Every structure is written in structure tokens, then in C-alpha cells.
Amino acid sequence: MKLLMILALSFWGAVAASCAGEPDPRPMAEDPVCLVNRDLGCLRVRVDEDTPRATYKGKTYYFCTRMCKAEFERDPEKYVGHETGK
Ligand SMILES: [Zn+2]
Q1: How far is residue 69's CA from residue 81's CA, in Å, rounded to a whole number?
Q2: At 66, is the secondary structure helix, strand, or coil?
Q3: Domain contains 45
Q4: How many domains does the chain have?
Q5: What does R_g of the chain's alpha carbons equal in angstroms?
Q6: DSSP H helical segments within the chain, as ranges?
Q7: What's the predicted TM-score (pTM) here?
Q8: How far, in Å, from the CA of 80 to the mean position of ligand 1?
């Protein structure tokens, strides 16, 4: 019975690892423009020194592309306050 548990755990471990792909230590952020536009495919952005970002009211926001950043800067109020809280 115990062996079965170990087999089950290692099976699910392998599934989780294959879904995650390559390990990436960079933190994740949500692109507020994509969030509002419901563009969920690129909602999650990896944060590194090249990630487009803008600071608004003391908070830093990250974007998937410079286009999203430009859109945010044109009308920041449209995009703040929509965080999903994750
Ligand atoms: Zn975006």
C-alpha cells in the first residue's frame, strides 16, 4: 500500500514537472493592460531587467510589451485597481 502511494506521488510529480517546463527563477507579475483587455494569453509576465514597466502612484506595473506600457501610460486610471489579488 505504501509503495502504491509513492508511485502515485512520483507520477503526479512527473506530470507537474512536465507542465511547468523549464525552471525559471524570475518572479511573475500581471500585465494590467492585458488583464483589463482580457488578453489572458500574455497576462502573466516574467519580471527581469528588460521587462517594460511603469510606476504609477508609487506602484510599479509590468507589461508584456512596450505597446501595453504605452497604452497604460496614456490612461493609467483605466488599468489600476483591477489586480486579481494573486
Ligand atoms: Zn500586455
Answers
A1: 16
A2: helix
A3: yes
A4: 1
A5: 18
A6: 2-20, 32-36, 66-74, 76-79
A7: 0.66
A8: 14
Centre of ligand 1 from the C-alpha of residue 60, in Å: 15
How many angstroms separate the alpha carbon of residue 38 from the centre of ligand 1?
10
User: How close is the Cα of 59 to the center of ligand 1, in Å?
Assistant: 17
Domain that holds residue 82: 25-86
34 alpha carbon – ligand 1 mean position (Å): 4
CA 73 – CA 28 distance, rounded (Å): 21
Measured in angstroms, how far is the CA atom of residue 33 from the centroid of ligand 1? 5
- Write the pLDDT tens digit of every residue in 52-85: 999 999 999 999 999 999 999 999 999 997 655 5
pLDDT tens-place string over residues 39-56: 999 899 999 999 999 999
Q: Does residue 47 sit within a domain?
A: yes
Indicate whether 7 belongs to any domain.
no
